[in-house]
Amino acid sequence: MYRALLICNSVYPFEPVQLPKLLGPVRDGLAMWSALTDAEKGGLFDPENVEVLFECDKDEILKTANRFFQDCDPDDVLLFYYSGHGKQGRSNLHLCARDTTVNLLPSSSVSGNELKGYMETSPAQSIIVILDCCHAGAFKGDPPQISATSLAGKGRFVMTASGPAQKAADAPEAGHPSPFTRALVDGLRRAEPRSAQETTLVVDDVYDYAVRTLPKDLPQPQRRVNGAGDAVIAKRPHRSSQGGKVVVDPSDRAEPESVRREPDPPTSPSLSLLQGLGFGGADVRRATPSLGDRLSWRMFLLSSCLVGLFSYLAWQAWMDDISNGYDGYSSVTEFFFQCCGFLAALSALGCIVHALVSSTSRWARVARTLRFVMGLVFGGLWLYSVVGIGLNSSEQALLQSSMVFFCIAAVMHTRHDSLFLAGAAVAFAGVLVPAGNGGYRGVDMSVVIQALVSAGMVAMWYFGAPERYFTGAAAVSLAPGTATLLIHGYIPGVSVYGTSLALLSAALGDGTRPAEGSRSLVLQAWRAAVLRHQTRAPVPRPRR
């Protein structure tokens, strides 16, 4: 069985200067997955056996790699691929993760020694390692020596984009693979076996193809074999033996380099317009880091404090109504307010713990899990408050808004800008809230503008707008509330509250994962249709 694990990291939020954003890794993963699984061009990998991960933390890479190298059989062929930044340490190569910091390189990156340990204990006897990063030739993943009497194709086969002291070339622009990966992909699809009698392609064939096609001014790929024989990595399905001769289908011959490119898929004018404006598409998770990569827990801490504050104020307003003769006391309702306050304190404690520990530690994962659970609980409490209690005061309306904001942001934390979406939803809900509970008093132009802008903010989130559009839309959304205050003398509290949260979220970001961040590339394969190739790629820029 052929199995592959592709790790592609393009952004490093904690080191934006020393580890700048890369343009190639996102497309590298798509291109490699497509070439390995393309049965018509000789791909030997089934799509379900190729796992692609984007923008992974160190712990995620190590756990996935450990499982990948252990859950296999002796006759499996394993392919491990990495595209991203690489740093040379004192004794080995370090693959940079999303949470890597250069001054703490050994503890925040994936070292070659760690991968070597997983490989040495792997049951698989044939492992292919491909590294598209700077200093990739420094990788020391040598396995125990294999005797020459072993079967062919057993051992470890390493291909790297650069030597130990060289920097690999990044893609010239977004939507293109790096030069090294592009050469590998072309080799997997078009390279011919060395022998005319062979119908399979081995690692050496792909390596030779890459060396021949890469520009001479770029670092030349490195090749190292620790084992016996060579590993089959693809096949040539249109080659068949007839009378001692191999017949090759003419359609499988390599195209001239001048016309070699993927066909441009049809793109609608509206989609092209959105892409031209910087929109990333529905459910996009952008690769551009924001302040939220470090500050997202602060937004959740703020919302936890707001839930606690408004639960106290809503309880106090409810008790004041009862003392003034309102016959609506219920021990269940009082317990509801107490639960809101207690859970808000627990959530705030989890955010503080997250702030005090490393983002890759066990406690940080526990804090994130607690945040998600709190979102579900607050969603249930909000539903109970709407059905069982209703709206009795503006304080209770703000409490419900805070719980809705927290629920949406926590439950949808893997999506892009979930905090902004939560604020936009609250701002839109303010149009529907009764006037006595923080809503608008009657329908006028301010209400219409508020509804349209809030709905537009949700649409912008869906289509993956850049942060600058989010910030502008949230600022515009404050205009109806300001106009209402100046003209009518009151503040539509819920809409202004939601808009303020959306504006703050847009300014800070929410620390989401980047573009094409699906753990299963099969579910995201359709996105490859909108990524375009040029006939001749521009001059690639060096990685740093």
Could you describe the 3D structure shown?
With 544 residues, the chain is α/β, with parallel strands linked by helices. It contains 15 helices and 13 strands. The chain has helices at residues 25-37, 58-70, 105-108, 112-120, 179-190, 203-213, 269-276, 292-323, 331-356, 362-389, 394-411, 418-432, 445-462, 467-488, 493-508; strands at 2-8, 50-54, 77-83, 86-88, 93-96, 109-111, 126-132, 154-160, 200-202, 222-228, 232-235, 239-242, 245-248. The two termini are 37 Å apart.
Give a short summary of the structure.
The protein contains 15 helices and 13 strands. It has 544 residues and is α/β, with parallel strands linked by helices.
List keywords for this structure.
single chain; 544 residues; alpha/beta; 12% strand; elongated
Write the layout of secondary structure elements.
Elements: E1 2-8, H1 25-37, E2 50-54, H2 58-70, E3 77-83, E4 86-88, E5 93-96, H3 105-108, E6 109-111, H4 112-120, E7 126-132, E8 154-160, H5 179-190, E9 200-202, H6 203-213, E10 222-228, E11 232-235, E12 239-242, E13 245-248, H7 269-276, H8 292-323, H9 331-356, H10 362-389, H11 394-411, H12 418-432, H13 445-462, H14 467-488, H15 493-508
Parallel strand pairs: 1-2, 1-3, 3-7, 7-8
Antiparallel strand pairs: 4-5, 5-6, 8-10, 9-11, 12-13
